[in-house]
Write a structure and sequence with these properties.
Helix content is about 40%, strand content about 20%. It has eleven helices and twelve strands. It holds the Pfam family NAD_binding_1.
Length: about 375
């Protein structure tokens, strides 16, 4: 496995700097091989290539950990049921992927890399098909919007109820969401911001800053109670280890609060012995939309503390600076289980701070909104 993983990472380094070009080539080749596949994708393909390559990168990063690698692929297979793909579609995608890799890598490509990727794709397909076949849930759930609250011009908190079938998730996981009336076949992942419940109700925190995807804009500005969305199978491993006795550090930037809030809500149902320290940051005080709710939880649970911070608001009475720097000032966190969620910049800087504090990688779980 070590040599196999080395070949994958070496070959990926040849194409990583040209991911956009590779994505364009992949889809052009895919639709040329099977034009009928085009109807499975959104009308506007902008950004679609990056999402496909993000899944490849995640698989490559997990290849050293056999258990994580297999579970990720099984989850991905369950998730892909929403697209109605079959074994033949995966075979066609494999041909297009190899062609795209060869074309993008150029003269640096060799037969060892080619075989490693053939074997990798065969393994990926096998695990994804197994995950899809074993899933007893529907490909997706229809979900009715129950509430929709705006916080400023670019942020909304909404709740939805999954209809017809129970939807089981773990606190800290995320799901794919589609708004079929406004943007058919456009799916994007959002973390579930509440703990599992028997009412089939999920909460989402959505922000649509400049450059954000169209679906986020629809969910913030055009969605209202009574609308119907589609929600696909839960994924993600940023979940609490109940067997651990370590105290917990949670770091949330912006709407990265969503999975952190879900984790805290779950902890309120059983935790009595582990201290939980939450650091919640954004640019300005008005951006900290979730702070009142966090303070209510602090008042009810003595093991919980919340430290808010603003990076661009000198009048804010709490901590000043980027959230990663604030976390660093409060350490050490060496003996904690750490959970980090937010933009790529927030996650990257926080992971550096935790690494500098000698927190072992197995004790860190993170969820990033965008490329890390």
């Amino acid at each position: 496995m070590d040599n196999f993983a080395r070949l994958l990472k070496e070959s990926w380094a040849l194409v990583e700097g040209n991911r956009e070009q590779m994505g364009e080539y992949f889809y052009a080749r895919l639709f040329r091989l099977d034009p009928a596949l085009r109807q499975l994708f959104p009308a506007d393909m902008a950004g679609q290539g990056n999402r496909h390559l993000d899944a490849i990168v995640t698989a490559i990063q997990a290849v050293d950990d056999v258990e994580s690698f297999e579970e990720y692929l099984r989850s991905l297979g369950r998730d892909h049921r929403k697209y109605h793909v079959d074994a033949g579609h995966y075979e066609t995608a494999g041909i297009a992927l190899l062609d795209a890799l060869r074309s993008t890598a150029g003269d640096g490509w060799n037969l060892e890399y080619d075989q490693a990727w053939r074997d990798t794709h065969a393994t990926i397909v096998e695990r994804m098909l197994a995950g899809a076949e074993a899933d007893e849930n529907p490909p997706f759930w229809h979900a009715e919007v129950l509430t929709h609250e705006r916080y400023g011009p670019d942020t909304a908190v909404l709740t939805v109820r999954a209809l017809q079938y129970p939807l089981r998730w773990r606190a800290g996981q995320y799901v794919s969401v589609e708004a079929p009336r406004h943007l058919p076949r456009v799916w994007r992942t959002y973390s579930v911001a509440n703990a599992p419940n028997d009412d089939n109700v999920l909460e989402f925190h959505v922000r649509t800053p400049p450059g954000a995807g169209w679906l986020s804009g629809v969910l913030v500005r055009r969605t209202k109670p009574g609308d119907l969305l589609r929600v696909a199978a839960p994924m993600g491993s940023m979940t609490v280890d109940r067997a651990s006795e370590r105290d917990i550090l949670c770091v949330a930037g912006g709407v990265g609060l969503a999975p952190i809030k879900g984790l805290i809500e779950e902890l309120t149902t059983w935790n009595r012995t582990r201290w939980v320290h939450v650091f919640y940051g954004d640019r300005r005080a008005e951006d900290l939309y979730g702070l009142p709710g966090l303070r209510e939880l602090v008042a009810a649970h003595p093991w919980l503390s919340v430290t808010p911070a603003c990076s661009q608001d000198p009048d804010f009475e709490g901590e000043q600076g980027d959230i990663a720097g604030v976390v660093g000032r409060y350490g050490p966190w060496t003996n904690h289980d750490c959970y980090v969620s937010g933009s790529a910049r927030v996650v990257r800087s926080t992971l550096r701070a935790l690494a500098g504090d000698d927190v072992a990688p197995p004790h860190i779980r993170y969820d990033t909104f965008g490329e890390l």
